[in-house]
Each structure stands twice: as structure tokens, then as C-alpha cells.
Design goal:
Layout lengths: L1 H9 L11 E2 L4 E3 L6 H22 L2 E5 L9 E5 L6 E12 L2 E2 L3 E4 L2 H4 L16 E11 L11 E4 L12 E2 L2 E2 L1 E3 L9 E10 H4 E5 L6 E4 L3 H5 L10 H9 L5 E4 L2 E4 L3 H7 L21
Parallel strand pairs: 5-8, 9-12
Antiparallel strand pairs: 1-2, 2-9, 3-4, 4-5, 5-6, 7-15, 8-13, 10-11, 14-15, 16-17
Helix pairs in contact: 1-2
């Protein structure tokens, strides 16, 4: 299975991330800020990209990268023998918390999602894709790095050539000498990769408060098993709900109210008979800070 191959590819034998940091021409290794999830996510994407290319080649697909940073999707798979066979793949990374994962989004429910024959902020019109997938990476942040505010600098003995004298400082920063690369603590570990159709792991809540993004389920088991709130209702209800999210209004307690839950939306559509197909969301208490 491809996801298991990826887990093995990015991990050492004890489950640590095989990436230890950045290296310069002087063989100084700079550890990564674990608190900066954007950096970790981008390096993970770069790390696994050769494996994704190989997977595409083995299955007769070409890959087109998004032309602009904020366009959807991250990757477009196009079959080499039939260019009408297109799949959208977004790469998503998140870290484990005590009771699930840190939230992540599944793309916009704005312009390209609603106007599916247009190319605004999307590589190809939404309706040209046969399916929309999420390649997800879940990891654990190493305890010692939770509150790291500055990177550490290392030099590794087995990278030093005999005639070189290792630098003791880089600027005002001390350089630590270690025996080998495995001596450097990885900032993340314990990877869990999954592939899921976007609609099957979606929630009925936005993934972020100030942008039109679709949120995901926060349960790791539900992500693995494609068991989101829409998974028993079908993709059509997912599409209709999110196309109308925040704009459809119903009267509740005598007052007009914007519809922001799937249960209310089904009631609004006269389909309360489908309530029993709503997969109950796993809810967690907020962690104490």
C-alpha cells in the first residue's frame, strides 16, 4: 500500500522523522522549529514528492503542480492515455493532540466550488476532476520541541573530512558536535499517512473562522476510515450543503437564522428522514493551556 510505503520512507527504524534539519556548505545542520507547522509541512511535502512522482509514473499518470500558491489543488493527476481522466490531490499535514488532531482544511467552498465550470483560483474547472482526494500526514511533535524558540546548530562527526576543523560558533551561536545524524533528535515522529476522498472526511463546520474553507473531521480513526459527517449521505449532499453554507436561511424560534449545521440544512430541505444518516461528529474538550 502506497501510504505504508510513505510512512517507511520518511521514518527511521524507531519512527523518528529521517529529516534532521537544514545543512549548509560548511556542514552545519540547523534544526527545524517544531512550532512552525508551515515549515514542517513544506519540508514534508518536498520529502515525499519523489515518491508521489514515482507512484504517478507507475500508474500512467502525469502530475501538474498548481501554477499559483493559493490555487487548488496542490497536484493534478492526468492519465497519460486519456487527458479527461483527472484527479485533484491536496497534501495536508497536521499533528496529533491529546484527543485527536489539530484541525486542517479541505479547500474552499467559495468561487471555484460554486462555479464549477470556471477557472478562478483552480488549476482546471472543478467539474473536470473525476474525484477530489486528500493525501494526509499526521505526526507527533517531539515533546522537547513544543516550546523551542530558537534553532540549534550541530556538526556531525561522520560528515567531517579529516583535514577540517569544525567550527565552534556560527555568529554568536554555539555549535554542538555529535557522533552521527541519528544523535540529533527529530522534531516530529510517528507518522500516519492516509488517502481519502475529500467529501468523505469533511465536517459541516468551516476549518477556519475568517476564510471560506471546509473543515475536516478531527478523529484520526474517522480520517483513516473515510467516516466524516457526510459519508453515509453521499457526495451530492456534501456539495449542496457547502455550496449553500452561510447563505441559506431558515426560521428558528421565529427569527431568520443562517444555516450552518447539516441537521438544520436537511430540515430546511424537508429531509428530516435523513437525519439518521448523519455520522455523529467526535467532539473533544479543549486542552488546557
Amino acid at each position: 500500500m502506497f501510504t505504508k510505503k510513505l510512512e517507511k520512507y520518511v521514518s527511521t527504524e524507531n519512527g523518528d522523522w529521517s529529516v534532521k534539519g537544514f545543512i549548509d556548505v560548511y556542514k552545519n545542520i540547523y534544526t527545524i522549529f517544531s512550532s512552525d507547522t508551515k515549515i514542517v509541512s513544506k519540508i514534508l511535502e518536498i520529502h515525499i514528492f519523489p515518491q508521489i512522482l514515482q507512484f504517478a509514473e507507475e500508474n500512467s499518470y502525469n502530475i501538474i503542480l498548481t501554477e499559483h500558491q493559493n490555487y487548488y489543488p496542490d497536484l493534478t493527476f492526468i492519465h497519460k492515455k486519456n487527458e479527461h481522466v483527472k484527479f485533484a490531490v491536496d497534501l495536508k499535514t497536521t499533528y496529533r493532540k491529546k484527543n485527536g488532531i489539530s484541525s486542517f482544511t479541505l479547500g474552499s467552498h467559495g468561487s471555484y466550488f460554486k462555479e464549477r465550470d470556471k477557472k478562478k483560483n483552480i488549476q482546471f474547472p472543478y467539474n473536470q476532476y473525476l474525484a477530489h482526494f486528500c493525501l494526509g500526514v499526521i505526526y507527533t511533535r517531539t515533546d522537547m520541541t513544543e516550546d523551542v524558540s530558537e534553532t540549534e546548530i550541530f556538526q556531525v562527526q561522520n560528515l567531517q573530512e579529516d583535514y577540517e576543523t569544525p567550527n565552534k560558533k556560527v555568529g554568536d551561536r554555539e555549535v554542538t558536535t555529535v557522533d552521527n545524524l541519528k544523535s540529533i533528535t527529530s522534531v516530529i515522529k510517528d507518522f500516519d499517512f492516509f488517502v481519502a476522498e475529500k467529501w468523505k472526511i469533511a465536517s459541516d463546520k468551516q476549518g477556519s473562522g475568517n476564510t471560506a474553507n471546509i473543515g475536516s473531521t478531527l478523529s484520526i480513526d474517522d480520517l483513516r476510515n473515510e467516516n466524516g459527517i457526510f459519508s453515509q449521505l453521499g457526495e451530492e449532499w456534501f456539495d449542496e450543503y457547502w455550496i449553500n453554507h452561510g447563505s441559506a436561511t431558515m426560521v428558528k424560534d421565529g427569527k431568520p437564522t443562517k444555516i450552518t449545521t447539516l441537521k438544520d440544512f436537511l430540515e430546511f430541505k424537508g429531509r428530516k428522514d435523513l437525519w439518521d444518516k448523519i455520522v455523529t461528529r467526535t467532539t473533544y474538550k479543549k486542552e488546557a493551556k
